[in-house]
Amino acid sequence: MKKYLVTFALITFIAACGGNAGNEKKGENTSASTGDITENPDYKAGLDLISKSDCLTCHKISEKLVGPPYQDVANKYAGSDTAVAHLAKKIIEGGQGVWGQTPMVGHPALSQADAEQMVKYILLLKTQ
Description:
- The chain has 128 residues and is mostly helical.
- The protein has a single domain (38-128), classed as Cytochrome Bc1 Complex, Chain D, domain 2.
- The protein has helices at 2-17, 31-34, 41-51, 70-77, 83-93, 112-123.
């Protein structure tokens, strides 16, 4: 009888402590639950593209350089359903007037998909 009681207690303990492993959906990104945006695939892909471009000549993450900090852009466009397409178009075509009179040079050689991936990265930098 003691053997059955110990076995039952052990099974109950294992079930109570190891419950999260089976609850995750296949392919689900768990970085949102941990708060670590650097594990987000959009973060990694966007950062890679930005690192290979000339974007960091004018932009920093949290400080104004020539253009606005990425965090300010993310805060301004947070929650907008059209932000990705709108900002990707701005990256490709360039623009002026939203953040001051200094124009942003267009990047017409950049594909729409790559520009959108860069925007997804920027939007993840939201601080508010």
